[in-house]
Amino acid sequence: MLDSLKKMFTGNESDIPVQTGSKPDISREKSAELYEKAKKYFPGGVNSPVRAFKSVYGTPLFIQKGDGCFVWDADGNQFIDFCGSWGPLILGHNHPKVREKVTEVMQNGMSFGAPTALENELAELILKNNRYVEKIRFTSSGTEAVMSAIRLARGFTGRDKIIKFDGCYHGHSDSLLVKAGSGLVTFGETSSAGVPKSFAAETIVIPLNDRQAVEEAFARFKEQVAAVIIEGIPANNGLLLQEPEYMKFIREACTANGALLILDEVITGFRLGLEGAAAHYDIKPDILTYGKIIGGGLPVGMYGASAEIMGHISPDGGVYQAGTLSGNPVAMAAGIAQITELSRSGFYKDLNTKAQEFVASIQRFATARNYRFKVFTAGSIFWFAFTDQEHIRTSAEIDAGSMEKFKVMHRELLNRGIYLGPSGYEVGFVSAAHSKIELEKAKRAIFEALDVVFSNK
Ligand SMILES: *Cc1c(COP(=O)(O)O)cnc(C)c1O
Questions:
Q1: Chain segment 44-90, per-residue pLDDT in tens
Q2: Domain limit, last residue, from 316, 343, 370
Q3: Quick check: 183 pLDDT over 80?
Q4: What is the DSSP-derived secondary structure letter of residue 302?
Q5: Which of 50, 169, 174 to mutate to test the pocket of ligand 1 (most atoms within 8 A of CB)?
Q6: pLDDT per residue as tens digits for the range 22-48
Q7: Cβ contacts of residue 339 below 8 Å, gap of 6+?
Q8: Distance, CA 258 to ligand 1 centroid (Å)?
Q9: Mutation test of ligand 1: which of 140, 146, 262, 290 has the most ligand atoms closer than 8 Å to its C-beta?
Q10: CATH of the domain at 172
Q11: According to the UniProt entry, which residues carry N6-(pyridoxal phosphate)lysine (predicted)?
């Protein structure tokens, strides 16, 4: 077994015979039944829209359990999972260390609404690994963390406007559900019903990878901009890799204009390494937001800054922010256990190397076949794009029509036991639980799926 796998690893991707037959659809009977019921209770049958499988084939799969790199649905289908609950599960599902710590802490009760030592413990683990922030506050989601960071920036600077980038996602608070209007530097337009126009008018939306747009926005709204917010690595609308010099430029533009830089690391925090994207670019943000991984699969968000800036948060300062379940002991326990594992020496090197080998092989395969397909990647994050562009740095460069191809790929992959997030705009994650054997299996399935996608071009 191992010997034959070794042969597979060193094999040449271009020698693999073309596979063009679709596989029959897996049974989704139980999931379909549950979905019918769910539609009675929840809008679209779900509690977060992307889960409804609107951009891929079939009814959403209802997941029954997860273990390591696998999930099982209600019909008993097993999948190698690359969604990882959208990022938090860097150790894979149901990691024994996380489960044990959560189980232990739960014996003492679930919530007190009073301080616990566990909050200190998780804060120490985060701050020890971060030279950019001195004080933090825990929230219950990434959305809350970013919303609070924006309020803090406004409270600290006494200014109202924020600059955000088209193609970056920062959760669903009102100020951030704003898309670009027409023209290079304009007031945003709401991207959701229910967001007042007057809120959107406080958010300026500009394209990524465009220095002039940043300069124009600052010039036009002189001394009105409280903060510029950008994702550490934009990874919620494809993987829009930015050049380090551009990130440095944004940092400098903020400083020159008296605005704060909010680096939203909800997805990148503890994903690329212990210090996230800030260290990756070597830029110092004024406010950082984290989420996802620091909760180990439970609801946790966090924002942090220098002691001076955080001094503006109540009860020390005048910027109000609170939470009934903030710093929840069970959630803290999961975060402590997870970050303790991540802190082991060599963790990120092993994970990132494994992930990079995986995506490089997929890219070699697609290139050998002349498929119009590119894998964009950073650390253990990857994004499948049906394109021949060497770089995609802005959302405008994403070809919406190519999502039809992703749709076919997604179905072929599910039918081969591979679970990707149900949208071509979403990235995938390799976790520490993906062994070489499973990654090899996944690669084979991806090769076949690509052959099917490109067989009827
Ligand atoms: C996921 C995410 C959020 C929102 O976090 P939730 O926990 O879903 O509210 C905000 N910003 C970024 C960069 C994210 O990836």
A1: 999 999 999 999 999 999 999 999 999 999 999 999 999 999 999 99
A2: 343
A3: no
A4: E
A5: 169
A6: 899 999 999 999 999 999 999 999 999
A7: 122, 125, 126, 129, 270, 293, 294, 296
A8: 26
A9: 146
A10: 3.40.640.10
A11: 292
Is residue 169 located within the same domain as residue 268?
yes
* Ligand 1 center from residue 266 Cα (angstroms): 5
Ligand 1 atom closest to Cα of residue 291:
7
Q: How many Cβ atoms are within 10 Å of 176's Cβ, its own excluded?
A: 26
pLDDT at res. 2: 47
* Residue whose tokens read 């990022």: 87
Q: Which residue, judged by its Cα, is nearest atom 8 of ligand 1?
A: 142
For ligand 1, mutation pick of 170, 287, 290 (most atoms within 8 Å of CB): 170
Non-local CB neighbours of 159 within 8 Å, separated by 6+ positions = 223, 224, 225, 226, 259
Q: What is the pTM of this model?
A: 0.95
**CATH number of the domain where residue 2 is located:** 3.90.1150.10
User: Are residues 262 and 140 part of one domain?
Assistant: yes
Look at the block and give the residue holding tokens 């919303």.
Answer: 147
Same domain, 356 and 335: no
**The predicted structure's pLDDT at residue 417:** 98
Q: How many Å lie between the centroid of ligand 1 and the Cα of residue 85?
A: 12
- Ligand 1 atom closest to the Cα of residue 299 is 7
Are 90 and 101 members of one domain?
no
Q: How far is CA 394 from CA 29, 91, 415, in A?
A: 40, 30, 32
pLDDT at 362 over 80: yes
Q: What is the pLDDT of residues 263-282, one digit of tens each?
A: 999 999 999 999 989 999 99
Query: For 22, phi and psi rounded to 5 degrees?
Result: -65, 150
Claim to verify: residue 23 and residue 106 sit in the same structural domain: no
Q: Are residues 62 and 159 in the same domain?
A: no
Token pair for residue 197?
A: 């126009």
The residues annotated as belonging to the active site are: 169, 264, 292
* Domain region containing 295: 96-343
Span 287-317, pLDDT tens digits: 999 999 999 999 999 999 999 999 999 999 9
Question: Do 334 and 265 share a structural domain?
Answer: yes
Mark whether 88 and 114 lie in a shared domain: no
Cα distance between residue 281 and residue 385, in whole Å: 24
Structure tokens belonging to residue 217: 């926005």
**Which residues sit with their C-beta closer than 6 Å to ligand 1?**
141-143, 146, 169-171, 231, 236, 264, 266-267, 291-292, 301
**Total structural domains within the chain:** 2
